[in-house]
Amino acid sequence: MTYDADDMHAGWSEAVTRALRDIYAPPAAPEYWDALERRIMDRIEGDVAPWWTVMGRWTHVGAAAAAVALLAAGLATTLATRDAEARFAYESVLGDTISTSAYDRATRTAGLSVVDASFQYVIPR
Amino acid sequence: VTDSSFDAARERQLVVAAQRGDTEAFGELVKRYQRRAYAVARAIVATNEDAEDAVQEGFLHAFRALDRFRPDQAFGAWLHRIVANAALDIGRRRRVRDADELTDTVASPFSDPAESDELRRRLREGLAELSDRQRMVIVLHDIEGYRHAEIGAMLNIPEGTARSDLHHARQLLRHKLGNIRGDL
User: What's the rounded Cα separation, in Å, for the pair B138 and B132?
Assistant: First the structure.
């Protein structure tokens, strides 16, 4: 900052300016400025906190829900794969001896109980 | 670190970071500018407490308005205008609140029972007799070193009015200081 040239005219003493500066001198203690800075930042962080907090909270909830969904999907896929593998292994070992699909068809179409259907396939007609 | 030695490139970095919501960067700007902001506010309001409030309000407004700050502007000048507006607002509210105690309000900021220096005592009396705007102008000009145009922008008055206020304020203070001035 510089003074306008025409303002430092004769009659306005430097001593008066010095006295004015004394009267309006800001606090000198560094602690004062540290405290003021903290108060300013508290207000600013308080001002932005609700928005960030809400966003942060939703981000956490969303991330947790996504993790649970992923876990559930992974578990379902594993179980389905294991079931299919077991079924495939079972059919390949037994071959045509017992056709599970024919067994299923019999229980479904003829209205037989599980025991009757099993007999029907074990004891030839 | 003074405002003038504050590297402009660093200031731009901090402002851009603050515009993206980085409160730490804004904290650095607060650290750099709070003293100057306080001085501006103190020139306008009557007490240290009101000056502190104005500085806090000013920084908060500035933070909220950061997206409207253009990088080609000087951050300090922009901030000080906002702080000055906050101080003017606090001053207006204070005047309305203290309307019944106007005499005390004007006199109290400058009263100091321990004051022994004759010049300062009379100066305080003289300052108390100035209008608010005259006092703001003389403090911003003679203590803080702002130009008339800058003062006009801060106080929302024409540059010529700032110049004339300074003239009248000095005239009144000269009269108040009377024969002391001859000894200075």
Answer: 10
Substitution target from B82, B143, B148 for chain A, most A beta carbons within 10 A: B143
**Tell me, what's the pLDDT at B110?**
46
**Per-residue confidence at B111, pLDDT binned at 50, 70, 90?**
very low
Q: How confident is the model at residue A17 (pLDDT cuts 50, 70, 90)?
A: confident
Question: Is B55 in contact with A36 (Cβ distance < 8 A)?
Answer: yes
pTM strictly above 0.80: no
Residue with tokens 């203290």: B98
Chain A residues 13-72 with a CB less than 8 Å from chain B: 13, 15-17, 19-24, 26-27, 33, 36-37, 39-41, 43-45, 47-48
CB B79 within 8 A of CB B37: yes
Residues of A in contact with B34 (CB under 8 A): 33, 36-37, 40
Q: For chain B, give the mean pLDDT.
A: 84
Nearest to B42 among A12, A26, A48 (CB): A26
Whether residue A44 and residue B23 make contact (CB cut-off 8 A), yes or no, is yes
Identify the residue with better confidence: B116 or A82: A82
What phi and psi values does residue B22 have, to the nearest 5 degrees? -80, 105
Measured on CA atoms in the order A49, A50, A51, A55, is the torsion positive or negative? positive
A111: left (phi over 0), alpha (psi -120 to 50) or beta: left
Cα separation, B157 vs A108, whole angstroms? 95
Give me the pLDDT at residue A33, please.
95
Contact B48, A27 (CB under 8 A): yes
Residue of B nearest to A44 (CA): B60
Rounded distance, CA B75 to CA B15, Å? 8
